């Protein structure tokens, strides 16, 4: 018996067939070329939120952006999944840029900010609560309607700094490989990406970049920008 759910899944398969046909018509040989290699220059570490489609936001085709996503775009040294993606991207694909991307009104960040009971993921977003604890005094002075977005941006800065301190990135820098780490935030309300200006291309740049970016975030929220 065919159910409504079966029909919805069939819609996805039909959509895929149209997309593949349109792509091949627009760029003949696209899939045969893609099969031979992937040479992305960018690793995107973003939130799993369905409203943040990485490739589409930056106008890149399949094969041009390597992507890892999890709840609240967290980078921690115990997450072998994220670290494995980073290691493959840096050591084998030779990506030149790692971009940690958060987004406004993030549900995971909201849950961390307000100690919401959301099930198993509570254990994961404890990492975001750690960020909240570090900046709790400043966050308390941010107007409540803007507090979630403020923590979203602080979380990007902390996770980008974490990415810099991973053995993957540290080893790449020590052997002279060009890898630049960035932190961005995406606005669900306007569809725009914003550079938070935490950009580091070597171990000696990390803490200075973090401090400048942190000062920038705090200054913008202080002025209502």
Question: Would you give an account of this structure?
Answer:
The protein has 225 residues and is of the alpha/beta class. It folds into two domains: 1-36; 37-222, Beta-carbonic Anhydrase, Chain A. The protein has eleven helices and five strands, in the order H-H-E-H-E-H-E-H-H-H-H-H-H-E-E-H. The protein has helices spanning 4-26, 30-36, 54-58, 80-92, 107-113, 121-124, 126-134, 136-140, 144-165, 167-174, 206-222; strands at residues 42-47, 65-70, 97-103, 180-186, 193-195. A five-stranded mixed sheet has the order 2-1-3-4-5. A hairpin with a 6-residue loop joins strand 4 (180-186) and strand 5 (193-195). Helix 5 (107-113) packs across helix 7 (126-134) and helix 9 (144-165) packs antiparallel against helix 11 (206-222). The protein is globular. The mean pLDDT is 94.
Radius of gyration: 19 Å
**CATH class bucket of the largest domain:** Alpha Beta
Question: What class would the helix/strand composition place it in?
Answer: alpha/beta
Number of distinct helices: 11
**Element order: H for helix, E for strand:** HHEHEHEHHHHHHEEH
Shape: globular
Family: Belongs to the beta-class carbonic anhydrase family.
InterPro entries: Carbonic_anhydrase, Carbonic_anhydrase_CS, Carbonic_anhydrase_sf
Catalytic activity: hydrogencarbonate + H(+) = CO2 + H2O
Keywords: Lyase, Metal-binding, Zinc
